[in-house]
Amino acid sequence: MSKGASAADAEQRVHRVVAGLLATGTRLPDIRLVAETIGMRVRTLQRRLRGIGSTYAGVIQRTRYATAQELLKDPRRTIGEIARMLGYSDHAHFTRAFQRWTGLTPRDFRRGDRRTIIGRRRPSG
């Protein structure tokens, strides 16, 4: 397996672990916990992510973004509940982050006004 492939694989593994933890309402996972879960040392994980131009914080943000979009599809969940599940201490912080990612508030996204998302970039890092 090439270094690029193993680095991309590491990023996907981190994404899966973080998404799983967020889905269970676990607080935002520390890099040590995630590295241990995927059987890697922290420095190795950081090196692999850096090798593909990514960071642990970037993977966390992209995972939060993807998870937020999925959670917002469930009308039974409140914006505050989703914010807490994603590790935000306040729903206003989540709303600002979601607006930065999409150009929409979570409420507008939920209403289906997704026109302005087209062409916007997902969180990077």
Give a quick summary of the entry.
With 125 residues, this protein is mainly α.
Task: Draw up the topology in text.
Blueprint: H1 3-23, H2 31-37, H3 42-51, H4 56-72, H5 79-85, H6 91-102, H7 106-111
Describe the fold and architecture.
The protein has 125 residues and is mainly alpha-helical. It has one domain (3-117): Arc Repressor Mutant, subunit A. The protein is 64% helix and 0% strand. The protein is built from seven helices and no strands. It has helices spanning 3-23, 31-37, 42-51, 56-72, 79-85, 91-102, 106-111. Helix 5 (79-85) packs across helix 6.
CATH homologous superfamily designation: Homeodomain-like
Molecular shape: elongated
Q: What's the number of extended β-strand segments?
A: 0
User: SS-based structural class?
Assistant: mainly alpha
Overall pLDDT confidence: 86
Work out the helicity level.
Answer: 55-70%
CATH 2nd-level architecture: Orthogonal Bundle
How large, in whole angstroms, is the Cα Rg?
15 Å
Features:
125 residues, mainly alpha, Arc Repressor Mutant, subunit A
